[in-house]
Amino acid sequence: MIVFLKKYINLRFWILAFLLVGCSATFKILPAGSSGQTSSNIITASITSTNIGKNTIPSSDLTLPAARLKTAQPSQTLALTVTSFPTLTSTPTIVFEPTQIQAPANSKTPTVDPGQVPLQLLSPGPNSKVVSPIELIVHISPKFAGSTRIELIGEFGEELYRKTFRTFPNIGYYTRVDENISYEIKTASELARLQISTFDKFGRIQAINSVHLLLQKVGENEITAGESSQPRLLLDSLNDGENINSESLDIKGSYLPINEHPLILELINESGVVLGSKLIQVNNNVGEYQPISISIPYSVHEETGIRLVFHQSDDVMDGLMYLQSLPLVLGPKQ
């Protein structure tokens, strides 16, 4: 009997082991009051039947009191610190714009053909009323730079101001001259001629330009507009340094008279000797170009450097009012 009971117990043990291994369990937490429970939460374990070989073990429900389950308590509370990050802003786009830089004032004033106006008087203009000092502004063509002289001559021929200095050519540009001219007069006012002239290496006059002024002992300046860039002399057939081999020099072009005095043409060699000359009467229409078509005879035995000079005298005072010249080389007829 005892042996039988031991075998029976062992058999139930192995059956229970097979049940535990071959079954799948599902646990779910039910709320209080469900399935007839009203006092506390319960945990229900549903055991689903599973085939073990050829035997089918029925499913069953196991209900366990919730009190038997220990609720897991966190051993440590993790405090999350949220760090605020700076707001990302887009990087500004740097646009490089060209800066307009103002060029410094230069004494060289560009022009299309600076050789056409030898000495341009920008200020003061004709018949200006001035007080001392006079602010003179002149542009000198590169072809006529060199020994330069500024003179202020009173109506009685006295020299009120004189200064000689050297200017240097700037190819393609005028050379600007700014000069403050101080003077003293005995009367309240006096007529004067302000002139500027340049000379070549042989001492011959290359160009003269001048303007009449009314000098005042006291008062205020009344400055008129200066000379325009309009050339006074235009030549059609001759160029600087041109060689002419003949017995006469043919000249064609036009001239803008400064007054009604005759226009005089001269051929002057390097020693200052006049080799030939002509006089042209100008018409009464001052301010209009007058055509020039003339021939000046000459006689040389070898090539000779000369200046072809055009000049007009002052119609108010003694002296020259305007002069312009052109270097040439004259040779005997071949």
Shape: elongated
Query: What is the subunit arrangement here?
Result: single chain
Proportion of strand residues: 35-45%
Separate helix tally: 1
Instruction: Calculate the terminal CA-CA distance, rounded to whole Å.
Output: 172 Å
Rg to the nearest angstrom? 59 Å
The beta-strand count equals 22
CATH class of the largest domain: Mainly Beta
The computed structural class is mainly beta
Count of spatially separate domains: 3
Mean pLDDT: 76
| Spans of at least 5 consecutive residues with low confidence | 20-112
The largest β sheet comes out as: 10 strands, mixed
CATH fold naming of the largest domain = Immunoglobulin-like
Q: Percent helix among the residues?
A: under 10%
At CATH level 2, the architecture of the largest domain is Sandwich
Order of helices and strands: HEEEEEEEEEEEEEEEEEEEEEE
Description of the structure:
The chain is mainly β and 334 residues long. The protein folds into three domains: 2-62, no CATH class; 106-229, Immunoglobulin-like (Sandwich), CATH 2.60.40; 232-334, Sandwich (Immunoglobulin-like). The chain has one helix and 22 strands. The chain has one helix spanning 2-22, and strands spanning 24-30, 42-48, 51-52, 55-56, 60-65, 108-110, 119-123, 128-131, 134-140, 147-154, 159-166, 173-181, 189-199, 205-216, 233-235, 242-245, 248-255, 263-269, 274-280, 290-297, 304-313, 320-331. The strands form five sheets. Strands 8, 10, 11, 13, 14, 16, 18, 19, 21 and 22 form a ten-stranded mixed sheet that branches. It has a four-stranded antiparallel sheet with strand order 6-12-9-7, with no helix packed on it. A hairpin with a 4-residue loop joins strand 18 and strand 19 (274-280). The radius of gyration is 59 Å and the shape is elongated. The protein starts with a helix and ends with a strand.
